[in-house]
Amino acid sequence: MARAATTADAFNAVAEPRRREILDALAQGERPVGELVDLLGLAQPHVSRHLRVLREVGAVVVRDEGRQRVYRLNPQALKPIHDWVAGYRHLWEERFDLLDDVLADLKQEEH
Amino acid sequence: MARAATTADAFNAVAEPRRREILDALAQGERPVGELVDLLGLAQPHVSRHLRVLREVGAVVVRDEGRQRVYRLNPQALKPIHDWVAGYRHLWEERFDLLDDVLADLKQEEH
DNA sequence: CCAACGCATATCCATATGGGTATACAATGC
DNA sequence: GCATTGTATACCCATATGGATATGCGTTGG
Fold it and tell me: What is residue B32's three-state secondary structure?
């Protein structure tokens, strides 16, 4: 079996830096494909492909506007990622907690 | 150019579900390879490869203990992911903020 | 010193990625 | 109706993935 498809889930879709850039751009507001092409400096077919992946994992939604296709962010699709990493947050912040403890102890000893 | 290497960064490394399982297991405490093999029900070489990827992105560190190799989680490596998704959090929670606003307005009108 | 154990690495395979380029298609303007 | 604009899709290619299996190698035990 090869690597999981990029469309398998948000984790895989978002592993590609360009797709994160697209999402970052859409976080500011919806945009037609052409604008994203200019913003990212990528070939139009390439941007369309990335958008397809993002659509398939539900990270964006499209709307037809004349001959343009306006893409909008659907942030909820990123929640699973947030929920997963958030579980680790206290672990990398632990060292600060420890530092706090040490400082508290030192303060205690002063008295 | 093919897809970015899984070892390119934490985003790519963590896109693989099995590797997330490994991290989840290590979040409970350090473990030798054999234990992870049992926990995940994967072939040993496969687990070793996943651990290699996780090592290369700095998500885990190894320690030699006799003929065992004990792996430990290095949560800081996940921080970039957290930092990125955290920026979107307010967007999927916006609807609750809006609800809050509505409720506040209703309360106002009561008076 | 040799056997067994614990892991890492090498190899083979099927798959699909992302890039590039060409092309198809729908909507608008003349 | 036809040309143009805005996007999507179809191909071709190089690459490296994850699974499976075999094997290398250091450590411990008898």
Answer: strand
Interface membership of A40 toward B (CB under 8 Å):
no
Q: Copy the structure tokens of residue A108.
A: 């205690």
Q: Please tell me the distance from the alpha carbon of residue A33 to that of residue A47, in angstroms, as a whole number.
A: 7
Residue B75 to residue B107: CA distance in whole angstroms = 44
Task: Domains for chain B: give ranges and CATH numbers.
Answer: 10-110 (1.10.10.10)
Whether B4 and A15 lie within 8 Å, measured CB to CB: yes
A94: amino acid identity, one letter: E
Contacts of B39-48 spanning 24+ positions with Cβ under 8 A:
B42/B18, B46/B18, B47/B22
Question: Is residue B46 a contact partner of residue A110, using CB atoms and an 8 Å limit?
Answer: no
How far is Cα B33 from Cα B70, in angstroms, rounded to an integer? 7
Can you list the alpha helix ranges (DSSP code H) found in A9-78? 10-13, 17-26, 33-40, 44-56
Give the position of tokens 């995940």. Answer: B40
Nearest by CB to B82, which of A6, A75, A86? A86
Over chain A (111 residues), the average pLDDT of each successive run of 10 is: 90 96 96 95 94 97 95 96 96 70 60 51
Q: What is the distance between the alpha carbons of residues B67 and B49, in angstroms, rounded to a whole number?
A: 18
